Amino acid sequence: MATPDPQRELIRAPAGGAPRVVQDACAHLGDDDAMPLAGPVTVSWSRWRAERQALAARGEVGVRLPNDLEPGEVAPLLDGAARVTIDFPNFKDGRGYSLARLLRERHGYAGELRAVGDVLRDQLRAMRRCGFDAFEMKPGKDPHDGLAAFTEFDESYQPAADEALPLWRRVSRG
Fold it and tell me: What is the predicted pLDDT for the residue at 5?
């Protein structure tokens, strides 16, 4: 059975709040792993679909999504999920950005959206703008170093999940 890695840290960046590094108590379970009686866990998309009602009733269970799913097919099945993690198998694969933004904006998902996999410092600010609020950095990458990514720019030009108005609509021309 998978257990939480006591050394694993992640970045939490709540909407309207300052990003911070926290210990991650969440265990990522395999499809055949026994479900612990308590504590936060994530399960695969296939396990979530097969056992969704029991997992949602347990509480503290999140679902891990591959980045190639259609948001419209996923969203109706997320009720009861404590968190949604979206996998980035390769930093060059941007489908997870689209999935996150559509889940937030089109389908109204309001729970934790966590980026996992090949997550690098240079991606963090863009991921947050797409609706992610938790980030598991790629193994070997320092989440404390990643915090700087959120303060390197003061403004964004385009609207996104974190700011509905483009910059030109937010600036007063007096």
Answer: 63
Determine the Cα angle at 34 with ends 2 and 137, to 5°: 30
Q: What is the pTM of this model?
A: 0.84
Average pLDDT, the chain: 88
- Mean pLDDT in residue range 65-75: 95
Confidence (pLDDT) at 41: 96
DSSP secondary structure code for residue 115 in this structure? E
Domains and CATH numbers, the chain: 9-170 (3.40.50)
With left for phi above 0 and alpha for psi between -120 and 50, is residue 116 left, alpha or beta?
beta
Cβ atoms of residues 97 and 70 within 8 Å: no
Write out the two tokens for 129.
């703008």
* Rounded Cα–Cα distance for residues 144 and 49 (Å): 35
- One-letter amino acid of 119: V
